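Bumping my old thread because nobody answered last time. Still need a sequence for this structure:
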């Protein structure tokens, strides 16, 4: 009898421990991909910090080598991010691809990087202490193409399912690791001509697949594709051609009635795909501009946008098939209020567009009706990097200067707080387990209520 009771007790204890570990690794304790749960930048956590400085409410601050704008991802007690470190001169005979506009070669005054050697690293940190647990070199050598001087070769955010960590460095490859830092596989999906601006789109996980959009060139679509790899082995499962010129937008998975759609942004077309096969489900006329913003979703409505050279917002009702131009599935469009790089955010039933100066426009997502416009932050600043995040009735806008403005969500614009790290920032905030993870130019910060700064 005592043996039976002891065994039962052991089983119950094991169950409780397993349940707590499962809970700790699921839901709001994780921020497993670009823009977190459902790629929408929204956390359902409560009582998160809304005030901080470079010392106040900072649990830890860890120097990060090199330069990266990839968002940290968090699973359980692990934080992963990527970085790019510039080394010496590239071989004199190394030539990046020519970039053509029509019949003429184009050269941008802000192109840099291709004349240097680079090292691309993957880092794993302890979530509670900020200690770097391991770092692995994914790639060392010359790079295929230029990048913009304000950019970085470590712009795409990694993705994880709790077992595999998959990182992407554009033409320099895809790398799959386990949680201990062991390289499981790598795959060179091809040279990607991003018109010398760098790769911006991040990988997306769907079931056993990891999916990448690789839209190339400007002027006319050429060589653009989307590819799906097996997340366990890195082997190619499917590849399709995309009729889209260069873009930097990360696609979003949306569950509609009877199917899952992979929604993609683009200059020429907005397209929905079957993520299992890459088969096109529907398309409609695109944003006619640089597609950088991630689509935002409300139910079966997808809202896609661009901010340069023209501003465009288009709302599409999902679930249909074929060409949607001229149909009721294209719900509305709008031509103001968007940013060049940051994505909009759709939170608590309202859509918030943000300009490059941080001016907010609040819109009803179903109709396109303006709720308010001209919502300003209290100081003049620029927003060319981080996308907004939201939680607990608040929207957070992070400027390039590293100032985060806490905005009250709802039909009336109100600035609740302004927080500065004193360090420039081009990366969106990640949220997990009651903490904010903010990547500055030189450090990764963990912001926690009552946090006492620990330097690593």
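Sorry it took so long. Here it is:
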């Amino acid at each position: 009898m005592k043996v039976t009771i002891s065994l039962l007790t052991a089983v119950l204890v094991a169950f409780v421990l397993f349940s707590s570990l499962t809970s700790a690794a699921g839901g709001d304790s994780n921020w497993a991909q670009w823009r977190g749960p459902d790629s929408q930048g929204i956390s359902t956590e409560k009582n998160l910090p809304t005030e901080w400085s470079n010392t106040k409410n900072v649990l830890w601050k860890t120097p990060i080598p090199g330069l990266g704008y990839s968002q940290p991802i968090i699973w359980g007690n692990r934080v992963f991010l990527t970085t790019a470190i510039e080394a010496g001169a590239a071989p004199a005979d190394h030539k990046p691809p020519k970039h053509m506009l029509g019949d003429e070669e184009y050269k941008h005054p802000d192109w840099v990087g291709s004349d240097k050697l680079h090292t691309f690293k993957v880092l794993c940190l302890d979530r509670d202490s900020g200690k770097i647990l391991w770092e692995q070199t994914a790639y060392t050598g010359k790079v295929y193409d230029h990048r913009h001087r304000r950019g970085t070769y470590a712009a795409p955010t990694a993705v994880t399912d709790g077992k595999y960590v998959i990182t992407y460095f554009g033409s320099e490859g895809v790398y799959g690791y386990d949680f201990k830092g062991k390289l499981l596989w790598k795959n060179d999906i091809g040279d990607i001509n991003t018109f010398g601006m760098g790769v911006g789109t991040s990988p997306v996980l769907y079931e056993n697949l990891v999916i990448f959009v690789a839209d190339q060139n400007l002027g006319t679509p050429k060589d653009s594709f989307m590819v799906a790899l097996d997340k366990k082995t890195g082997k190619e499962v499917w590849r399709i051609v995309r009729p889209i010129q260069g873009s930097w937008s990360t696609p979003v998975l949306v569950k509609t009635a009877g199917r899952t759609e992979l929604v993609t942004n683009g200059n020429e077309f907005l397209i929905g795909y079957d993520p299992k096969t890459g088969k096109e489900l529907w398309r409609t006329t695109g944003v006619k501009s640089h597609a950088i913003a991630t689509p935002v979703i409300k139910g079966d409505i997808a809202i896609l946008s661009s901010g340069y050279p023209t501003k465009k917002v288009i709302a599409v009702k999902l679930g249909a098939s074929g060409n949607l131009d001229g149909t009721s599935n294209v719900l509305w469009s709008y031509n103001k209020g968007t940013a060049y790089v940051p994505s909009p955010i759709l939170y608590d039933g309202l859509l918030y567009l943000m300009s490059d100066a941080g001016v907010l426009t609040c819109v009803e997502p179903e109709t396109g009706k303006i709720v308010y416009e001209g919502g300003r932050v209290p100081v003049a600043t620029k927003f060319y990097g981080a996308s907004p995040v939201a939680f607990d009735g608040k929207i957070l806008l992070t400027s390039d200067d590293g100032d985060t403005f806490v905005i009250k969500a709802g039909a009336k614009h109100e600035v609740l707080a302004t927080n500065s790290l004193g360090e420039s920032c081009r990366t969106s905030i990640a949220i997990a387990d009651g903490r904010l993870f903010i990547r500055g130019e030189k450090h990764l910060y963990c912001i926690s209520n009552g946090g006492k700064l620990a330097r690593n």
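Confidence is low (pLDDT under 50) at residues 1-27. Let me know if any region looks off to you.
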